[in-house]
Amino acid sequence: APNAARSPQVSVTTMQARIHPGGTTPQLEERYLMQRNMLGSVVHCPAQPCFPATAMVEAHDARAWPTTYVPLDSPTHYKRAALSSRAVAFYGGARGLLCRPLLNGAADWSVPVGRVKGVALGGDWLAAVFTQCRVRLFNLSGSQRAVWCAPGRHVAVVASGDQLALLYHAASAGDGDRQAVSVQRFLVGSGLAASAPLVLP
């Protein structure tokens, strides 16, 4: 996007692997943090005899939402999660993603196709980075609102309120395999009108 707000490039000495903020390395036979932030945590609980692997979604403040358990059966064994005050999303490992709204009894929804590289949850929306640098924006009911291509290979995606930031490789390897990582920011806004473009801060 030519009008995107970009930060100065940060040079790194080796190709930066994807970053999953708030998560730890997946250990499918052990408990591990799929996500932890200021609101709560999503803990992977390994399979037990007669019980599938599950994700325990727990708020730091028990009044925010009840502790929730999400089955992670083998066809959709997600390894990563993103958490906001309104929803939890699962991705990685399996194809696609799964979103579970945490309030008002809304139904789970999923996107069963494509490998998801990263997910960020904003105020009332979800952004997912798929293969081929494709970014998809959904509302929390599962309606897709926008699709575009990131300028480079995905490093991380983060959100807060109505702001979305994509970190990506801005250039291919140079001398000594040096890379350049840049940031592109968007102001998503509230309501996500289908015809409204993303607004840049």
TrEMBL record:
It comes from the Eukaryota. Residues 19-178 form the WDHD1/CFT4 second beta-propeller domain. GO terms for cellular component: nuclear replication fork. One of its GO terms (biological process) is mitotic cell cycle. InterPro entries: WDHD1/CFT4_beta-prop_2nd. GO terms for molecular function: chromatin binding. This is Hypothetical conserved protein 1186. The lineage of its organism: Eukaryota, Metazoa, Ecdysozoa, Arthropoda, Chelicerata.
